[in-house]
Amino acid sequence: MKRYFIHLAYNGANYCGWQIQPQSPSVQAELERCLSLKLGQAVSVTGCGRTDTGVHARSYYAHFDYEGEIMDCQDLAYRLNMFLPSDIVIYRIWEVAPELHARFDALARTYHYYITPTKNPFHQNDSYYYYGSLDVPLMQQAADLLKEYTDFTSFSKLHTQVKTNNCKIMEARWFEQDGLLVFRIKADRFLRNMVRAIVGTLLEVGKGRMSLEEFRGVIERKDRCSAGESVPAHALFLEEVDYPETAK
């Protein structure tokens, strides 16, 4: 049995997210279907993490085990791309050590959330249109507070089946890129709905509706009801996943 890693990307607009869900299209289901057909045996694919419905991934990793040897991984990637829907692309497939795991060996994940300050028909499907002034420096001060904490229950979807709500945030910053306001956040792991809830709450700070101390209080209360509303999923992208050198 050999293990292979896959580097891929997808537009999440037509999917319930990465993970297979009953009666709903998922990226995982599409990839497993195509791999099983091309390799001639049932193939299960393990992803580096879940993405919510409508969330995109510019860089996503998964692994699968295969009873046999793939002689030409580049050719397999090419054939899969011919067969997969147009909103999923395979960049690379390569053999790794059998103990490497796409989810558990990931060191960090980075998300970007894109906000457009003007109505733009060319960004309506990949950014959140927010009309109004925002105090971005104050939003950055609030984002800096995130790195002082590890328990992010206040920004997690309720009733999720996880053992802990602790995450280590390594980076949280706002910047401008090509006329868009971008929030970049990097952590060892993320809770369901976490990034969208954080951005929604930071926007409350930027609108002047929440002070820095109130934002700190939201984190410390560990109560989802005290945080702001989640922003729409279509503007959220998984941008990067970091692995040890042994996985590359």
Summarize model confidence as the mean pLDDT: 95
| Largest sheet descriptor | 9 strands, mixed
Give the helix level as a range of percent.
10-25%
Overall spatial form: globular
Total of domains: 2
The CATH homologous superfamily of the largest domain: Pseudouridine synthase I, catalytic domain, C-terminal subdomain
Stretches where pLDDT is under 50 for at least 5 consecutive residues are: none
Q: What is the number of beta strands?
A: 9
Present the secondary structure layout:
Elements: E1 2-10, H1 27-39, E2 45-47, E3 56-66, H2 73-83, E4 88-96, E5 108-116, E6 128-129, H3 136-146, E7 169-177, E8 180-187, H4 194-206, H5 212-221, E9 236-242
Parallel strand pairs: 3-9, 5-6
Antiparallel strand pairs: 1-3, 1-4, 2-3, 5-8, 5-9, 7-8
Tell me about this structure.
The protein has 248 residues and is an alpha+beta fold. It has 2 domains: 2-104, Pseudouridine synthase I, catalytic domain, N-terminal subdomain (Alpha-Beta Plaits); 108-241, 2-Layer Sandwich (Alpha-Beta Plaits). It has 5 helices and 9 strands. Strands 1, 2, 3, 4, 5, 6, 7, 8 and 9 form a 9-stranded mixed beta sheet that branches. Strand 7 (169-177) and strand 8 form a beta hairpin. The mean pLDDT is 95.
